[in-house]
Amino acid sequence: MAKLVLIRHGESEWNLANKFTGWVDVNLSETGVKEAQQAGARLKEAGLQFDVAYTSVLTRAIKTLHFALEGLGQLWIPEYKSWRLNERHYGALSGLNKKETAEKYGDEQVHIWRRSYDELPPLVGTDSPFHPVNDPRYANLDPRTLPAGENLKVTLERVIPFWQDQIAPQLLDGKNVLIAAHGNSLRALVKYIEGISDEDIMGVNIDTGTPLVYEISDKDLSVISKDTLTKA
Ligand SMILES: O=C(O)[C@@H](CO)OP(=O)(O)O
């Protein structure tokens, strides 16, 4: 048996400002820093130890991982960053206020954009500052793999190869794995791991800074148990 812990980053400055964020590299808010530190404290209280950690290439997830590992006294473990764990790319919604967007397009449309499995947001062109082709951190990737906007389905299709190639072999080897990532990249992972349907995933939300602790079979990767380390 292996332990798998998923943490969504602590509150970000744009969670606080209620803006669509996606691949925009905003920092943690003050509350977000505290949430990440508390997540570390709760993992320590639960007696968890990790062999390896994974995160995205976005500051809010990387810092959350580091605050959590610091709380655990485990900043030394190997950690790997991948764009495949990034938040879903919100396309032309990036940077817009969610409430104002709902006033303009209606609550239902915004709910569909935010939570449906296969509805794409409006896309950005390569001339947009929000297109990843303009961000040096993606310069080594084939530009054809870079998204102009993603739904959960497309997000899942780029998260799962990373799970299969990098993370699953660690769990099959009995290693304890910590992943710090984002609301929607983690929804994609949870959907895959738990076998949640396209309809039911619409109702699944993952809270900031709240570790999800899975016991995973090191024989077949099935979920043995799931626990949520909620805020005190
Ligand atoms: O803006 C975003 O990138 C995400 C996560 O904060 O928002 P939502 O919950 O609307 O998918």
From TrEMBL:
One of its GO terms (biological process) is glycolytic process. Transmembrane segments: none annotated. Substrate binds at residues 8-15, 21-22, 60, 87-90, 98, 114-115, 183-184. Keywords: Gluconeogenesis, Glycolysis, Isomerase. It catalyses: (2R)-2-phosphoglycerate = (2R)-3-phosphoglycerate. InterPro entries: His_Pase_superF_clade-1, His_PPase_superfam, PG/BPGM_mutase_AS, Phosphogly_mut1. Pathway: Carbohydrate degradation; glycolysis; pyruvate from D-glyceraldehyde 3-phosphate: step 3/5. The record marks 182 as: Transition state stabilizer. The keyword Acetylation does not apply. Its EC number is 5.4.2.11. The active site is at 9 (tele-phosphohistidine intermediate), 87 (proton donor/acceptor). Pfam families: His_Phos_1 (PF00300). One of its GO terms (molecular function) is phosphoglycerate mutase activity. Coiled coil: none annotated. HAMAP family: PGAM_GpmA. Belongs to the phosphoglycerate mutase family. BPG-dependent PGAM subfamily. Catalyzes the interconversion of 2-phosphoglycerate and 3-phosphoglycerate. Homodimer. This is 2,3-bisphosphoglycerate-dependent phosphoglycerate mutase. It comes from Zymobacter palmae. The gene is gpmA.
